[in-house]
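Dear colleague,

Following up on yesterday's call, I've attached the two folding results inline so they're easy to grep. Please treat them as preliminary; we haven't cross-checked anything against experimental data yet. The first protein's sequence and structure tokens come first.
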Amino acid sequence: MYQCQKSTKCVSKQRLVDGIQDCPWNDDETFDDSCSLNDARFRRKCLIRDKKMCTAPSFSIDKSTGCEDDEENNIGHGIAKYDDHIYFQRMRDGKRDLITIVIDGQNETDETECTYWPCNNTYTRCDGFWSCTDGADEINSPNSICPEFHHRCVFPEDPSNLSCLPIARAGNDIVDCVGASDERKVCRSAYLTAVVYSWQCLNRT
């Protein structure tokens, strides 16, 4: 068994470097000695983040982007480099960051199967990014200039002053603030990959 860093959680060594995060700090996927494990002969040698690693047989490999064994199963020509890491905050944020893979006949990404995933948790609290549609994970942050349960807002009728908006008016599909800063999903759902279009203009309703 492998004990996760900074945690009492233990996972089977077969689950190390398998493409699925099991440990809170993702150390099961960055484990340096994966090529020294007892099951190394069943693992695939790859370059991940410029490090030699041996991935579990269940590790998803895409020939166009992934790490494909050469004839001798050694790292060298024919093995592509790739980065398999995204930050926790980028999961369930309304923007797809990973290519679609098929799991049990279903197309899955970092945005699917998130219905029961709490958006306000210890990893998302006060990180400057709205994980919840109403921004509940950013309320009452230490650097906030607003009273409890309020967000910063610039109202269209008073654009020269920074004001505060009650959380009850955030994420309700009604734009109250300049740039729709209280309705983060308004443009994100329409323009998933174009950051330049991710804010509403003042003259749009």
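Below is the second protein, in the same order (sequence, then structure):
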Amino acid sequence: MAADRGLLLLLLSAAAIAGVASAAGPFLSADGVFQVSAGSTGRSLLQAKKNCAMNFEFQNYTIITSKCKGPKFPADQCCGAFKEFACPFRDYINEDSSDCSSAMFSYINLYGKYPPGLFANMCREGKKGLACTDAQSSIAANGGQRAQSSSLVLVTLVCGLVALLFH
């Protein structure tokens, strides 16, 4: 009986963790993504941001650089390419406590030589930011994995192993 109660508690905890892991909405936040540097106010000026868990240095930026070309930088092509690149990483980019968005934009500008603020000024869809569709979000672009799916798999595996141990 005690083992059944422990297993139930474990499964409920796993479900709660999985729910938190999948709570991120299907948007690239306008607040986090397009605020690359300076302009922060309040206490955050004194708080250092943690390093990004995703390494943006070795991603495939040709998704953007092959479609978004100057001198005119057509908004439909540039914004579509930006979303195609960035949506799979939205969980990392939207994390305000990390430097993911600034790291990503640094590499986009390094490889694409884009004018400052190009994507922030052109790519707008609403109050929540850029909408990432399920198709864009499910792309495992650039060899990167989405934190949400990998953490969900990890939680499931750990729960299964613990359940086997207590059975």
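For the second protein, one point worth flagging: The beta strands are 27-29, 129-131.

Best wishes,
A.L.
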